[in-house]
Design a protein that fits this description.
- By secondary structure, the chain is α+β, with helices and mostly antiparallel strands.
- It has four helices and seven strands; from the N terminus they run E-E-E-E-E-E-E-H-H-H-H.
- Strand 6 and strand 7 form a beta hairpin.
- Helix 2 packs across helix 3.
- The C terminus is likely disordered.
Length: 141
């Protein structure tokens, strides 16, 4: 499953995967508790494939950040928790992405990225990072 099918819904914890399309939106299933919910166009949603992280030189797609975390952690869960202190989160993220823009990437953003990575890892969805790359390569041809 690619990151095009994984969502963050504002006001809801964790991540959701798109299960089915409806007339007014779609049905999404929580990766945390497997509960399904109807999501309409009025919900504030973010598709993971559309999210990027500010660095000092560019905006790096979230997929690339997840790959850096995966490489650092040898495809295991992160060595820190998303509930750790602001300083711990920032120090960890600096180890993953040394040129991230500290003025535009907040501790709350790092917390979400760590939590999302761990959810994807727990559900064996990190292979979606490679699938997204293949789709992108196919589109460029």
């Amino acid at each position: 499953m690619s990151l095009d099918k994984i969502l963050s819904i504002s006001g809801k914890p964790g991540l959701y995967k798109i299960v089915a399309q409806t007339r007014s939106g779609f049905v999404a299933e929580s990766l945390i508790d497997k509960k399904k919910m109807a999501v309409n166009i009025h919900n504030n949603i973010s598709v993971l494939s559309e999210i990027a992280v500010y660095t000092l030189t560019e905006e790096l797609p979230l997929r690339e950040v997840f790959k850096k975390i995966r490489d650092k952690e040898n495809a295991q869960t992160t060595s820190i928790s998303h509930k750790d202190s602001k300083d711990t989160l920032e120090e960890y993220f600096f180890g993953v992405l040394p040129d991230y823009d500290e003025d535009r990437v907040y501790a709350s953003d790092i917390k979400k990225i760590v939590q999302w990575y761990n959810l994807l890892q727990k559900h064996d969805m990190l292979d979606a990072l490679e699938e997204d790359e293949e789709v992108t390569a196919d589109e460029e041809e």
